[in-house]
């Protein structure tokens, strides 16, 4: 699809970046853990930037194979900049030989889905008559051919949509959740892929939940499951879900599982806007973000601080952009994802399902892809997540620098760049200057002596050398601590950094610091984060042409 106006050459170069990522190779495998980081066999950090791809619903096959060729879908995952897929599976696919050997065609036909059969015949003829377990292998293999890592996620026992408290799949001992069957399934799946390089991890069970949840049983069975997986496949990371739909791991504060192996244990946490108690719609956005992030810390983020890897294996939002609560949640989530440099997996890749909850061709409003799997549902989101797809920190980053600060703008996914001493603008974080947010509250471009200064209300922020004036002292204010604020030297008026519609960095009256729940402060939200990522703008003022309005209006992926 063509852009509505011809892009500048620089913009064109930037647009090609995801395509370059597609040509990337797998990291040095297998993965293991080094304190809170995941690292490759060479000790370098590997950041998981994954999409969830469902393969656990009634047909027990990866969604979308009736709409696109499997290689094309895998290529699309890579082209969007993801390096990994969390591929879901139901236990019975590994333990019920009748299901595992059922030809894909029959699995669809028994559910009355003749149109899907026709679609698979057109788009994936080689898969149509394969047994379901081989279809699963082919999906893993297609992802491998595009250098996409795979995490196998045991989502349910019985094939079907997940998750409810009462679906009999919620906790060990529930109607369909026999611990022995589960261990058998984990062992079988780990064994099938014990020789498959791009399978880098297994998440043992998705979203434990329901009335029978029990912490002591959690330790008992998770330890057994982890040992079973490790014995069959010592290469994979072993990923453990918390309780209450994987919303809480707080019980791990004082006691970690006891395992006979080390260097492979990862925890996973889920964070959706709809789990946040309705705060997003009714509170001031600064207050909501603060309150929810405090709660997410207590429920799981503390693990990173304790030196354990924590994978945000599900987050997601309504990609139509019309859900106010989701939009607010997402910006807050992205600020945390940048600050903590999280490993994550978005829900979801699929734009639609063969069948979900009884509805044929169900539209996934959280899907990266459109209903027909042909285009990105929300192309500007893919630009927005791009800077979070590679690591800011961690061991062994290529050409890493001394840690410096980035001024990240979660509304756009861009960073504040000093392109000349008179102009600052949003641009790709990869091109940022190395900033230092000092203990004297100055925002200095490292080794230039130049610092950020507020000039006036509604005017561009500038760089200058006299950094001791009030207009160069930037405090992080409001409950979100994302308003970056200084006082005008001439008359003491308090202003906040703001991003203009053209991406210019200006200072304005601070917006919606307190109380007002209707006001949207996001253009004024900036997160000062730590990075040691290589950047060409390291210690100089950049001399770059302007990148124009962001995001570009009609991108296609
Ligand atoms: C195994 O799978 C087949 C095909 O889906 C199903 O008919 C059968 O009931 C399953 N067996 C068990 C024990 O669940
Ligand atoms: C994988 O598992 C099979 C079956 O248990 C075993 O024969 C094989 O040696 C294993 N391969 C590796 C690389 O561990
Ligand atoms: C959890 O399970 C253990 C072992 O079966 C049992 O003794 C304990 O009472 C259970 N706790 C709760 C709160 O149900
Ligand atoms: C900022 O500068 C101070 C003083 O020179 C230094 O101690 C600190 O490490 C720097 N921090 C960053 C993130 O660059
Ligand atoms: C201070 O100066 C700014 C910019 O010139 C102006 O908009 C604002 O009204 C002034 N505030 C006061 C209190 O005079």
TrEMBL record:
Name listed for the protein in its UniProt record: Glycoside hydrolase family 5 domain-containing protein
UniProt cross-references to PANTHER family, sorted A to Z: CELLULASE FAMILY PROTEIN (AFU_ORTHOLOGUE AFUA_5G14560), OS04G0481000 PROTEIN
Domain Glycoside hydrolase family: 76-350
GO BP term, example: polysaccharide catabolic process
Keywords for this protein: Glycosidase, Hydrolase, Signal
Signal peptide: 1-23
Record-level Gene Ontology MF annotations: hydrolase activity, hydrolyzing O-glycosyl compounds
Coiled coil regions, renumbered to chain: none
Protein family membership: Belongs to the glycosyl hydrolase 5 (cellulase A) family.
């Amino acid at each position: 699809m063509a852009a509505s106006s011809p892009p500048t050459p620089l913009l064109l170069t930037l647009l090609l970046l995801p395509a370059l990522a597609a040509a990337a190779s797998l990291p040095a495998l297998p993965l293991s853990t080094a304190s809170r980081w995941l690292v490759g066999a060479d000790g370098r950090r590997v950041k998981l930037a994954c999409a969830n791809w469902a393969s656990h619903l009634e047909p027990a096959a990866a969604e979308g194979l009736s709409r696109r060729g499997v290689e094309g879908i895998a290529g699309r995952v890579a082209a969007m900049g993801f390096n990994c897929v969390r591929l879901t599976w139901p236990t019975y696919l590994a333990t019920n030989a009748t299901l595992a050997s059922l030809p894909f065609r029959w699995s669809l036909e028994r559910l009355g889905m003749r149109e899907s059969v026709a679609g698979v015949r057109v788009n994936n003829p080689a898969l149509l008559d394969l047994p379901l377990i081989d279809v699963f292998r082919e999906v893993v293999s297609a992802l491998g051919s595009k250098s996409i890592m795979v995490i196998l996620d045991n989502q349910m026992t019985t094939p079907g949509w997940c998750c409810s408290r009462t679906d009999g799949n919620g906790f060990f001992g529930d109607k369909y959740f026999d611990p022995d069957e589960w261990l058998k399934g984990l062992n079988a799946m780990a064994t099938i892929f014990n020789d498959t390089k791009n399978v880098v991890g297994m998440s043992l069970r998705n979203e434990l939940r329901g009335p029978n949840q029990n912490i002591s049983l959690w330790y008992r069975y998770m330890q057994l499951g982890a040992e079973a997986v490790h014995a069959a496949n010592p290469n994979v990371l072993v990923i453990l879900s918390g309780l209450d739909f994987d919303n809480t791991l707080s019980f791990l504060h004082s006691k970690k599982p006891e395992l006979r192996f080390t260097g492979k244990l990862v925890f996973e946490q889920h964070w959706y806007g709809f789990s946040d108690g309705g705060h997003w719609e009714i509170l001031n956005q600064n207050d909501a973000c603060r309150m929810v992030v405090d709660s997410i810390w207590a429920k799981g983020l503390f693990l990173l601080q304790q030196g354990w890897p924590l994978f945000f294996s599900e987050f997601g939002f309504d990609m139509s952009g019309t859900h106010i609560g989701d939009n607010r949640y997402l910006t807050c989530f992205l600020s945390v994802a940048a600050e903590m440099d999280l490993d994550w997996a978005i829900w979801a890749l699929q734009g639609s399902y063969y069948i979900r909850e009884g509805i044929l061709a169900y539209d996934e409003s959280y899907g990266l892809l459109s209903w027909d799997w042909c285009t990105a549902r929300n192309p500007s989101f893919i630009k927005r997540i791009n800077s979070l797809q590679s690591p800011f920190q961690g061991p062994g980053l290529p050409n890493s620098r001394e840690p410096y600060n980035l001024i990240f703008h979660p509304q756009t996914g861009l960073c504040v760049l000093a392109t000349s001493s008179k102009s600052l603008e949003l641009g790709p974080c990869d091109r940022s200057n190395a900033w230092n947010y000092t203990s004297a509250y100055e925002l200095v471009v490292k080794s230039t002596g130049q610092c950020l200064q507020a000039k006036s209300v509604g005017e561009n922020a500038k760089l200058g050398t006299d950094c001791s004036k009030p207009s160069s002292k930037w405090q992080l204010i409001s409950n979100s601590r994302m308003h970056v604020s200084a006082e005008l030297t001439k008359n003491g008026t308090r202003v906040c950094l703001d991003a203009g519609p053209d991406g210019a960095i200006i200072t304005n009256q601070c917006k919606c610091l307190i109380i007002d729940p209707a006001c949207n402060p996001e253009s004024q939200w900036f997160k000062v984060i730590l990075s040691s990522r290589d950047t060409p703008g390291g210690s100089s003022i950049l001399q770059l042409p302007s990148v124009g309005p962001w995001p570009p209006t009609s991108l296609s992926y």
